[in-house]
Amino acid sequence: MKITDVKTHLLTGPCTLDPFLSQARRVRSAAFIEIHTDVGVCGLGETYAGYFCPEVVPAIVDFFKPIIIGQSVDDIPELWQRMYHCGNFWCRVGVGVTVLNGIEAALWDLKGKLEGKPVYELLGGCRHERLPAYATGGPSNYPHDELARKIEFYLSLGFKGVKLGAGAHTPERGFEIAFEPAAAADFEARKLEFVRRHFGRELNVMLDGHMGNSPGATWNAATAIAVAKALEPFDLFFLEEPLHYTDPWGYAELCAATTTPIAGGECLTAAYEWQVFVERDAFDIGQPDASFTGGLGTFMEIARMLERRGRKVATHAWGAGASLMQNLHAGFAAPNTVILEIAPAYGPLHSEIIGDSFVMREGQVLPPTKPGLGITLTEATKRRFPFIPGSGEYNSVPGKILPEQQEKENHA
Fold first, then answer.
1. What is the percentage of the chain residues whose pLDDT exceeds 90?
2. Which among 139, 353, 357, 362 has the fewest CB atoms less than 10 Å away?
3. How far apart are CA 224 and CA 243, in angstroms?
4. 3-state SS class at 212
5. What are the backbone angles phi and psi of residue 49, rounded to the nearest 5°?
6. Contact, 272 vs 92, CB < 8 A?
7. Rounded distance, CA 292 to CA 331, Å?
8. What span, in angstroms and rounded, lies between the C-alpha atoms of 312 and 334?
């Protein structure tokens, strides 16, 4: 078997069918990478960069393409290393290695299909019979009765865990959050008290600070510590991303100051960048993303890095369907995975690619069973969701305003 071609497909479709998440984000872009062979078998992968900066992905894929044309999938780590080294000056962290992630995922999918094995078997074997899932809730829809309806919706889908955002989101006012320590701590404690009072202690609850991509100021260590300590009575599964990723020292201080488990890492790329945080014990639970962090092999390296420090893994997965399945396979292969992130009520850029490969029963995800990643990108899906330039998500700043924010400003 020889690789004959590498193609990038950019698509744009509904972000989600979740009515609560749709209040904040209506469309999503995605970048899929196909690896074609002379035996007619095709590998498929996704880079999460396609959600943020899709326009740059095809050129980076084409840069790496000559390295794998004519090659087999006998030694994927060697092919990854060749591509990574070729981009040494610009690919050690960031978008280069993130796009490389999608290529490597397609190689693993291809190898799994050729050998008739699920990808987790190629990564060292399945380490879990099942894993708990949580619904990505996005922002906290307010007021409280709206937040309760949101959680009830996720429970109706079979989830036993839910992640809510810090602050509040309303259609009229958009996203709002407190930054002063006492105010932020009081707001989040009242939110969690409400959730526990209405849904009990059995529900796994996570809170996401979103401080890696906050549209305004970010919490400092004092605010993050105040919030984390205020939430200690409410038995959070974890507090995610309460500080910006330029502050590994603050994360380490925060972890040492509270019994609330601190999670993070979705924005980190490559083992080198992760090492900066892991060696400082900056996370109790690391959140690598097997469509962003550099590759499925890199995900496993990071999981081992965390395991050596006694830390756990909770997969991050907010890409489209291939991204979700990449994270499922990596999550099942890592022995220290404790929970999987799942997009609830996902849209067609998930469902048409995943098919019936994703199975969740009573809030627990079962290991995928199909060869490869268990994903397919049909010609019909490509035609149905043509790419819309500018549909990637980004942090709005003067001169670069998301359509949703522009619409709010026009009606203000």
1. 91
2. 362
3. 7
4. coil
5. -60, -25
6. yes
7. 14
8. 10
Residue 14 φ/ψ, nearest 5 degrees: -60, 135
**pLDDT, tens digit, 9 for 90 and up, residues 236-284:** 999 999 999 999 999 999 999 999 999 999 999 999 999 999 999 999 9
Taking the whole predicted model, whether its pTM rises above 0.85 is answered as yes
**What is 290-347 written as a DSSP string?**
TTTSS-HHHHHHHHHHHHHTT-EEE----S-HHHHHHHHHHHHH-TTEEEEEE-TT--
- Cβ count within 10 A of residue 344: 23
User: How many other CB atoms are there within 10 angstroms of residue 81's CB atom?
Assistant: 12
**Residues 172-202 pLDDT 10s:** 888 899 999 999 999 999 999 999 999 999 9
**Mean pLDDT score across all residues of the chain:** 95
CA distances (Å), 142 to each of 174, 201, 219, in order? 10, 21, 21
**Rounded to whole angstroms, how far apart are CA atoms 245 and 265?**
8
The model's confidence at residue 405, banded by pLDDT at 50, 70 and 90, is: low
The Cβ of residue 197 has, within 10 Å, a number of other Cβ atoms equal to: 8
Task: Give me the pLDDT at residue 271, please.
Answer: 96
Contacts of 401 (CB under 8 A, 6+ apart): 409
From residue 383, alpha-carbon distances to 6, 313, 333 in Å are 19, 37, 34
Task: Give the residue carrying structure tokens 């009520």.
Answer: 345
Asked if pLDDT for residue 285 goes beyond 90, the answer is: yes
- On the question of pLDDT at 372 being above 80, the answer is yes
More confident residue, 167 or 398: 167
| Whole-number Å distance between alpha carbons of 395 and 263 | 22
What is the C-alpha to C-alpha distance for residues 18 and 265, in angstroms, rounded to an integer?
A: 25
Sign of CA dihedral 392, 151, 227, 235: negative
Give mean pLDDT, residues 308-336: 98
Rounded to whole angstroms, how far apart are CA atoms 98 and 102? 7
* C-alpha dihedral, 224 to 225 to 227 to 232, nearest 10°: 140
Closest of 23, 9, 94, 112 to residue 57, by C-alpha: 9
